[in-house]
């Protein structure tokens, strides 16, 4: 490893350092390898340790590095490709759905959700909680909001609570003829409950995918799915096999 000095640049110094570090990760390190300590890295790049920490924190947020207690800072594995369903005729829980039902409750949803569903703000809806695991790691948590009118026969089903009731709501949805589904993706931060389910700290960056399911000209269900931004890259379409090459030793999968 040679010595690299940073030149004066118009962008923040830590951001330029992040770019330089990214190139080093691609060319000099392998997945799981422990980086040199902060003192040595700061000396190599000719920066203050505070600047180095800012760059390392940014790389951690982007999923390029992992900080492990008792080990140090290591090169993270590539993000996992997680498929987001785009089949316009597929309800949640149908076919090869990768989500696992966890629980279901009937409660008044947040006002924004009630407005999107077209229900009264004081009207309870079925709230199905589901989780998604990939390679043994939790990668996403979902809240699926279903108006009572979308599952009118639920009371006749022997599903008092928990995952069984969640599956019953999903079965009722599949009785409807789905016209289309609409997806929107935005960057967010993990709340306390999502952080606990995803094994992350509150405030960690997440990708929030909101899906509106339309049947008979109305919103029959609304999904709000929260994905870990540090380990996931979302794929849309039939194949989802686009590869992004980061360098000679690292590529997204």
Please, could you describe this protein's structure?
With 253 residues, this protein is of the alpha+beta class. It contains six helices and ten strands. The strands form three sheets. The protein has a six-stranded antiparallel sheet with strand order 4-5-6-9-8-7. Strands 1-2 form a two-stranded antiparallel ribbon. It has a two-stranded parallel sheet with strand order 3-10. Helix 2 (38-45) crosses helix 3 (49-61).
- Into which percentage range does the β-strand content fall? 25-35%
What do we call the CATH homologous superfamily of the largest domain? Chorismate lyase-like
Helix content: 10-25%
With strands numbered from the N-terminus, the spatial order across the biggest sheet is 4-5-6-9-8-7
Report low-confidence residues grouped into runs of 5 or more. Answer: 240-253
Counted by DSSP, the helix tally is: 6
Report the end-to-end length measured between terminal Cα atoms: 28 Å
Mean pLDDT: 83
User: Which H/E pattern describes the elements?
Assistant: HHHEEEEHEEHEHEEE
Index terms:
253 residues, alpha+beta, Arc Repressor Mutant, subunit A, Chorismate lyase, 2 domains, two-stranded antiparallel sheet, 10 strands, 25% helix, elongated, disordered C terminus
Quick structural summary:
The protein has helices at 13-28, 38-45, 49-61, 111-117, 162-173, 192-198; strands at residues 65-68, 72-75, 80-83, 100-107, 125-134, 137-146, 178-189, 205-215, 218-228, 232-235.
